[in-house]
Write a structure and sequence with these properties.
Among the domains are: about 160-225, Calcium-transporting ATPase, cytoplasmic transduction domain A (Distorted Sandwich), CATH 2.70.150; about 325-350 and about 495-610, Rossmann fold (3-Layer(aba) Sandwich), CATH 3.40.50.1000; about 350-490, Calcium-transporting ATPase, cytoplasmic domain N, CATH 3.40.1110.10. Helices cover about 50% and strands about 20% of the residues. The chain contains 20 helices and 24 strands. Strands 10-24-23-22-11-20-21 form a seven-stranded mixed sheet, with helices on both faces. Strands 2-1-3-9-4-7 form a six-stranded antiparallel sheet, with no helix packed on it. A six-stranded antiparallel sheet has the order 12-19-18-17-16-15. It starts with a helix and ends in an 8-residue tail after the last helix.
Length: about 675
Amino acid sequence: MNKKQKKMLIRIIIAAALMIALHFAYDFFGEHRTEEGEIINEWAIREPVWFILYMIPYLVVGYDILRKAFKGILNRQVFDENFLMVVATVGAIAVALVEQNGDYTEAIAVMLFYQTGELFQSYAVGKSRRNISALMDIRPDHANIEQDGELVQVDPDEVEIGTVVTVKPGEKIPIDGIITEGRTTLNTSALTGESLPREAGEGDEVISGCINMTGVIKLRTTKEFGESTVSKILELVENSSSRKSKSEDFISRFAKYYTPAVCGCALALAILPPLFLMIFGKGMFWGQWIYRALTFLVISCPCALVISIPLTFFAGIGGAGNAGILVKGSNYLEALSKTGIVAFDKTGTMTKGVFEVKGVHHSSIDNAKLLEYTAHAECMSSHPIAKSIIKTYQEGVIWKTDPDTGIAVPVPSTDKKMYRGEHRIMKDRVGSVEEIGGNGIVAIVDGREIVAGNRKLMDMKGIEAMVCHYVGTVVHVAVDGEYAGHILISDVNKPTAREAVAALKKAGVRRSVMLTGDSEKVAESVAAELGIDEVKSELLPEDKVKAVEELLADKKPKEILAFVGDGINDAPVLSRADIGIAMGALGSDAAIEAADIVLMDDDPAKIAKAIRISRKCMTIVYENIYFAIGIKLLCLILGAFGIANMWMAIFADVGVMVLAVINAIRALFVKKV
């Protein structure tokens, strides 16, 4: 509990103790009278004194409610829960004064239980806010920069792109960058919700907010702090509460018209029945009907709805954040529950976006020599395919023939000598290099002409290439004008991609579609392997937008289309879809900016989890709406007929609010969803 909550708890305890003490004291010292009006006990304390004594606990527990109601009247915002509480309690006190029964307990009890409910609600909101605030702890305090041979701590905002930053064990990665020296283990749980640590070493990209657990590392920054991952996350979290869901907007509009309406009904209940009875000579019974009207007011207070609905969404966003799913607003959380179609990008979303050498086909020279020549020829290129060939060569592999296909497959070598320099790229072996855009490379290696590229390049050089019957990217290689074989390279599916698609179907998503710029053959192979329903391949960015518009036109009424992507070319599609979901760890800034939901660990399995979290939140929202309105309507009817007293009214208001808040807190707990 914070100081404010502790202070409120003390006020409640003091007021409750005084109320109970006065209640028992009144039994002995109250002005108890006979039917003729004579005072029975000689030592009785006069009624005005009891009024003053009872006002002490009333003001102790309710002075802030009186102040808020008064301010609301001055600001012309009269009809809120504070106004209802003041009218109901002051009215109950007035009835007790008129009847001179000394029974001010109900008025104090109404205020006491209302404040207890407010305290409970404050604690619940605080708990949910602390869950979200845990994300705020990822902000780094400083960055270590070497100056004159010493490490100096500076504000991360002052670090420029390209600066070398030292991160010690136990410190947070201050800014996104690439490790230039050292090896370590990173704790990414605050960002991704993943409890397992991640190994990182020289050449690996690391994102800000992760905790360096073991070794000292140096990294070269690739972004300014304001553009780094941690800043983006904090910005998303801070702005998430500003985007309200339809349910929250409905409750706000409902309360705006509901409160004046029930005040009018309460006034009519206090005046019309007594006048009606007076006209027909039945007596007026003002006190009885005023009491019913006050009970009606207490019952009608919409606290349960006004508090619990936003709290449910707030808790849901916090719980999702702890699971590594950042939702930019409760409106997106609500919409996600109606997802019926999910469209995926392929590379970087369902696949790792990391190419690997899968085999060598039709090689007329030694497989290792073919790879060596190709790696040296590609050593000047920054293309992902070139990098995958160089990486395979440098790692040191041995070639084994697959008995089923007859293809030479690279297998990582266990011989440590393989990593002692025998497989370094030696650029002095490379002569001239000519890169032919979109086709490949022609280079001189060891005085021999190496041509490496696609079939078009082979045709340009007049070399007959062998056809590859396997799915993937094919790099044809020729040595001194003679065809030497081809290297098969393919992307790698993410480990959880298949189970992610299965989980979506289990969650009720009726249609899954892959939209990719890759070739039809590759796209259909990946889709079949992952269990995706439909494929649209060889799409340019503008084609993806058109494909999404076609899906939007074909969806069912009230159904939501979600698109999942990661690249800068996915930004237009993420914006066009009903819900855009971006891969946050490795995704581009443009994709994250355009998306409504960000998956911090790039795990597609989190998509189904996000949908389940959303549906859990909406279930809780509807439970609270039906429960609160149902109980209130029942108690309002009972109150109007005089069956419900003030104590039942307290339950209908505070009791229902407390139960609704307890139910709302369930949205925080999403780990097993």
